[in-house]
Please model this.
Amino acid sequence: MQILKAPNYDFLKLRGYGLALSLAVIGSGLALMAARGGLPLGIDFSGGTIVIVKFQDAVSHDAVRDALNTVSNEKVVQAYGDPSAREVLIRLPQMSGVEEGASLEAGSTAVVAALGQSNLGSFDVLSTEIVGPVIGAELQRRGVYATLASLGGILAYVAFRFRLSFAVGAVVAVFHDILVTLAFLAFFGYELSLNVVAALLTITGYSVNDTIVIFDRVRENLRSMRRDALPEVINASINQTLARTIITSSTTGMAVLALFLFGGEVLRGFAFTMLVGIISGTYSTVIIASSIVVLLTQRRVASGRNAAGSTASQARNQKQAKKAKARARAS
Amino acid sequence: MNTNVRWKALTIVTVLGLAVLAFYPPQERVRLGLDLKGGVHLVLRVQTDDALRLESETTSERIRQALQDASVSVGEISVVAPAQFSVTGVPSDRDTEFRRIADDQILGVFNRESRAGGAYDFRLKPNIEVTLRNEAVDQALQTIERRVNELGVAEPIVAKAGTGGDQILVQLPGVTDVGRAKEIIRSTALLELKIVEAGPASTREALLDARGGVEPPQMEVVSGVSDFSTGTTPDVAFYLVRTVAAVSGRDLRNARATLDENNQPAVGFSLNGEGARKFGRVTGDNIGRQLAIILDGRVQSAPRIEGRITDDGRITGSFTQQEAQDLSLILRSGALPASLTYLEERTVGPTLGADSIRAGLIASAVGLAIVAGFMLVYYKLSGINAILTVLGNLVILLGFMAYVQATMTLPGIAGFILTIGMGVDSNVLIFERIKEELATAKGVRAAVAAGFDRVFLTILDTHVASLIAAAFLFQFGTGPIRGFATTLFFGLLANIFTSVFMSRTLFEAVLSRRRVATLSI
Model:
């Protein structure tokens, strides 16, 4: 089967629109995050308490909030997973200025006690997560470091196997993917948890996959299509690998979709991040990476022309200008 | 089938066979993480300052004793900071003597600095400080390990963690009573037996009245419970005891839950050789006086010494049987050299764990089915090749994980599913390339060979990039994330093997039988 017979789309011409779309998405994402006061951090990074409770009978979230009024005013109560499962997630923020130690679990103990004393019926505590400020800060630091280090490692490897402009293009594409994914996480109300950051790190590797496949084809074509300019070569390469790009994204996307739909609530944030990352990854390779490569190559070529004095062409230009002036005076 | 292909096929079968051997039966061979098995994950910090303070206090106490024995009276000896104590009011005429006495006692562990007006500061030497801190963490680790082992948890993990060198990670699979586990782990369990000078009194002031309202030197006030055997509400009572303990937890040989004379739960303990000797001397010298049994700074009971006791005793109090057992467990394991604070706690109940496994397996099955279906439809018979490759991938991946005893977590199952998706990527690359080669009228076998050859480096490049990301992910993550990084890493390695070697061998096996004109791809 062949879904595309000898495709020949001019991708590079579309890059203006592509970049505009990316900027729109990333821009609105950043605006949304700014409006909400920063990235939505899960308790893994901001510290805090999460208690996931399964109630015997159906209860309303307001009733739960009322029961917990004595515990904290800044609590968050939301459904965990399918509403019919009667599972509720209760989140308490990091209690500032509190000593670690005994007080660390004060929040969760208070929640369980308050729920027990209310008239909400019997319940099971499915899981608790309590992260103190020390660990939260440490995980933040490590998350940022890991992302940057991963990007750096990939940059180095791609530069080593191809050339520097390719590597820069690849890294810019990955950066773009991370920003787009963060924007979508903000749009859909997901927060940064350990799982989500793990997914982001995985995307750095996955996004580069596509880029490498296309660059590999570019490298091969550069050898055989010597007379064509770089933009044409890139275009041709993208078209040649288009079928593979679409199919791979689809199959990986399908697998991750299965995870998103059937994998349970714990992995939902992870699966969502991967989904967005896969789609964005493909898109970014076609539009972003290639644009950067072309941009850098053109600039290099252009500056090469000026710097080398290219005195021959300059002299020619001056002569032509003189001739034009002479003609103008004569007429 | 020609011999070359036969050897290749044999290699593949061997590898797959080894993998299956490694992970079968999966219930026993594959380790499950806490998020799948249920249990509790704790990160504690050892307050190493406590260990430093103990050193300062013991040394300053020794200096006080020595000064007293030499009849040198000074102003005040006090511990100013965990690693520092100072002596003020040293008489100038006995200055040299003081220095000699002090140096004898600090044994090169402290730095001595003098200030104006006969005052001296003693600061712990930096390298000694580092050693003491490390020792405290090591000791805490061993003590916690002993306590955790006594809890009877299967496959617990107790290990150093974090970057500061003072964090300890404890993982207890299958534990449901988290509160009790945490109490047992962090209880300092400092047992001291001290002679009672006066008391019990109902208030601190009443106790010190006769002494002029201040604690006499070498004595301190400790509070505790006064009445415990008749079941009335216990009142708080204050005792004046000698600061230096006759016997401490370090002298214990054993502790076990037992019953007292009223058949109430109690903790019986026995002393080791040195402890028995000390105990014998003290009880012999103080017949008729009360002996305060102090646990973590609170008086548990204060029985009268009726005769010389050498090697065992009993701690009574209003214990439940569980409390008596827990306390003997804690005493047996030894006291903690420093207090612990909890930094992180995650518990997963067993229901959530089982649900997660089920969800993960369903998602994997669905993912596999979708991908397999697609490959068959799009690449027809070659799709079978792809499916076998992906299955081989998963088998080898499980084999790797079982072989290195890696832990399977919920994100690890996600990694599984990702391996399915990414495994197909390599096949797609190869198949598309083969299609292109076929279009150049090369002949089927040549096209297949060319396809594999051209694509090999590309596959390698993409996998290395993902391997780099997986490596950093492993470094960044703890617990569940590490499980994911491991699955990803091994899945990628397995994929390189299956997509290049196994897939090609499958093609060659089919193609070498007879001349094939077209390829179902």
In short: Chain B is about 55% helix and 20% strand. Confidence is low (pLDDT under 50) at residues 227-231 of chain B.
